UniProtKB/TrEMBL annotation:
NCBIfam families assigned to the protein according to its UniProt record, in alphabetical order: degP_htrA_DO
Position of the signal peptide: 1-32
Protein name stated in the entry: Probable periplasmic serine endoprotease DegP-like
Location in or out of the cell: Periplasm
């Protein structure tokens, strides 16, 4: 933060740099004194030396920066009763004590600086004092997207905020209000309260390529108006921060305080909103993540129009297609989203989608997995029509449905069971009983009453209490039917059999590979 730049250590470093510069100048001056006729010596050197080719270097960003920098603002948020470490992922959310709260008011400056640096309010392991009604200040970045004062930033920058102010590049400070937030994509829309015409930037219409130059502008460590440059390192990054992760990865330096700031292309258009960094140390290590324009633009439009985001919903529980599941279903490749359950009375169920269907495309565009399906459906609006391509019993079918509104307390369910797969029943280390005979297991299917910890079933994630509903598309009600279904699958030469299981409230598919040798017991 800005207080740290004036520390004795920093001043010493700056002085050392100045001294080094002075020494360099002195050496150059001493060398020049040996020439009795400096112009003649230079002319002779140019005549004798071969002509040097101009060196190619990176482009200058100065023109682009000069155009876009006035539209970028520092965002300061008064936050009430927040715990230490809350708020900012990459930039905003820095409070006035550097993320350390609960410091005694009469603490000497040296100790306050020490605790701020190491993040310990009262010394390592010491209990914090009870806190009453307290406030802190979070900091981040943002940028104008309209001339009348709408500003884009991150949700985590303004979360829990009671007052918001923005500081422009020319030094003016303006009060702002929160128009709407979307925690699922970590975006927020603000509007300054003072009327006027403000400099603004636009979202890019195209997508940047991996390797394209980008420029990040923001407010790292509260310094304000800082510009860094790099390239797009990767696209489509899923960092586990939400159900719609689809980040750009950039190597432009992004630090605490950059959150909510823009990433520009060389045309000065916004290609991303900086939101997170990967940093074991807390500082920049060359890996930063930005929400891409194609996500941000749609969310911001909804926030501007409605103050919230309404997402499409088809009512399915889905999981990845593993190689074992693909083999069981007769799919050519392990891609798409396998429907573990279609919600009763949901859009998908009413359109005829069933458990066991594999959704491989939406409106003709291929779907690689559950995450991509969630993003595609979530980007659509309630009431929109969607054409799903599903594979059922080895055949491709088209299903048209009308999207409903995603309930507020849910996300598009994409329950990725990455460990799905494995064998079951006799030879698979499982003890079974009719579900109706075991209290709490329901009236359908066969319940797993015991699992051999060293058996193939345990290796594939089956556990006591799981209820087997179907095997190979055939409903089962007792252990004998499970055994027969497994035998039939072996007889057909299948390497694995597909089981539909219910675990608690969730339903999923598990592809159980047959052991190479028959197991007994």
């Amino acid at each position: 933060m800005s207080q740290q730049t004036n520390s004795p250590k920093r001043r010493l470093s700056v002085r050392a740099g100045l001294l080094a510069g002075a020494c360099a100048i002195a050496v150059v001056g001493a060398g020049a004194a040996h020439y009795s006729d400096f112009p003649t010596a230079v002319a002779n050197a140019q005549t004798q030396a071969p002509s040097a080719q101009p060196m190619a270097g990176p482009p200058s960003f100065a023109d682009t920066v000069q155009r876009v920098k006035p539209a970028v603002v520092s965002v300061k948020v008064k936050v009430e009763n927040v715990s230490a470490g809350s708020g900012e992922i990459a930039g905003g959310g820095d409070d006035e004590d550097g993320g350390v709260q609960g410091l005694p008011p009469n603490l000497p400056p040296q100790l306050r600086d020490f605790f701020r640096q190491f993040g310990q309010p009262n010394g390592r392991g010491a209990p914090q004092r009870p806190r009453g009604h307290q406030f802190a200040q979070a900091q981040g970045s943002g940028f104008f997207i309209t001339p009348d004062g709408y500003i884009v930033t991150n949700n985590h920058v303004v979360e829990h905020g009671v007052e918001v102010a923005v500081t422009m590049d020319d030094g003016r400070t303006l009060d702002a209000k929160v128009i709407g937030t979307d925690p699922k994509t970590d975006l927020a829309l603000l509007k300054v309260k003072q009327p006027g015409t403000y400099p603004f930037v636009k979202f890019a219409k195209g997508q940047p390529r991996v390797g394209d130059w980008v420029i990040a502008v923001g407010n790292p460590f509260g310094l304000g108006g800082t510009v860094t440059a790099g390239i797009v390192s990767a696209r489509g990054r899923d960092i586990g921060s939400g159900p719609y992760d689809d980040y750009l990865q950039i190597d432009a330096a992004v630090n605490r305080g950059n959150s909510g700031g823009p990433t520009f292309d060389m045309n000065g258009d916004v290609v991303g909103v900086n939101t997170a960094i990967y940093s074991p140390s807390g500082g920049n290590v060359g890996i930063a993540f930005a929400i891409p324009t194609e996500v941000a633009a749609n969310v911001v439009e909804s926030l501007k129009d409605n103050g919230s985001v309404a997402r499409g919903f088809i009512g399915v529980q889905i999981q990845p297609v593993t190689p074992e599941i693909a083999d069981s279903l007769g799919l050519k490749e392990p891609k798409g989203a396998l429907v573990a359950e279609a919600q009763r009375n949901g859009p998908a169920a009413e359109a005829g989608v069933k458990a066991g269907d594999t959704i491989v495309a939406v409106d003709g565009d291929k779907i690689a997995g559950p995450k991509e399906l969630s993003r595609r459906i979530g980007a659509m609006k309630p009431g929109d029509k969607a054409d799903l391509t599903v594979i059922r019993d080895g055949r491709e079918q088209k299903v048209t449905l009308k999207l409903a509104a995603l309930p507020n307390d849910r996300t598009a369910r994409a329950d990725a069971q990455d460990d799905a797969g494995g064998p079951a029943a006799g030879g698979f280390g499982l003890s079974l009983a009719p579900a109706r005979s075991v209290q709490g297991s329901g009236g359908q299917g066969v319940v797993v009453t015991k699992v051999d910890p060293d058996g193939p079933g345990a290796e594939q994630g089956l556990k006591q209490g799981d209820v087997i509903l179907e095997i190979g598309g055939r409903a089962v009600a007792d252990p004998a039917e499970v055994k027969q279904a497994l035998a039939d699958a072996r007889k057909d030469g299948k390497k694995a059999v597909l089981m539909r299981l219910k675990s608690g409230k969730d339903t999923r598919f598990v592809a159980l590979a047959f052991p190479k040798k028959d197991a007994r017991g």
